[in-house]
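As the work plan foresaw, our protein records have gained a structure token line. A representative record is set out beneath this paragraph:
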Amino acid sequence: MPDHNGFGLFAQIREDVACVFDRDPAARNRLEVMTTYPGVHALIAHRLAHGLWRREWRYPARLLAFLSRMFTGIEIHPGATIGRRFFIDHGTGVVIGETAEVGDDVTLYHGVTLGGTSWSRGKRHPTVENGVVIGGGAMVLGPITVGANAKVGANSVVIDDVPAGRTVVGIPGRVVRTQKTGHLNPSGVDLNHHLIPDPVADAMACVFDRLAVLENRLGVGEGSCVECEGDSMCDAAGEDARRRGRGHIPIKTAMGD
């Protein structure tokens, strides 16, 4: 993961501010971004603290990071390596550990943790490659790699590598299939991380599909379900699962529809 040593500090900060307008439609002007965005404040402080850390001025670097956390609610260890055009939206509760490596054009939402899973002093935090979007409350743990342009759904817990361009959801995180949205912002970043499937609803839809087939084979018809009055409870549950899962697939119900 490049550290952009040859790229000037102020040039990086200018890019950090400019990228906000591509990823947050609420941003109106540079003055507003520079003075009211805690994610930008935390990132500027980190750029300075990381420079001190690289020069072996460890205590001043840690002190600056500590003060930044107090004022922004965002904790970034000064040893973490962060690429260009990095954006933290909202920001509160974000934690980025010492050996984390973050590529270019990465977007994090509030409550994200790039955490470690080991007491060793070596590499113990994630590597997040270019163009990744991580939803609010997600945890990415351990020395794993999140591939370029991947997405992590909100509140997911990721403990294994994520292939490039894929989407991970759930606890523990699992790779799911998604459709391309085709909606990219001017920087080429797809922020539609909310357009993800629901694996549980998909599984339930499969169960109801199979149940309908079995009922048809057994000749189960109207009035067979006595205890729960299937036309009100069972059918409603099945319809909800189909709508959330694979609602486009035609399904025959126990009522013979």
The first helix runs from residue 9 to 23. The longest strand covers residues 113-115. Residues 9-176 form a domain with the UDP N-Acetylglucosamine Acyltransferase; domain 1 fold (CATH 2.160.10.10). The chain has a mean pLDDT of 82.
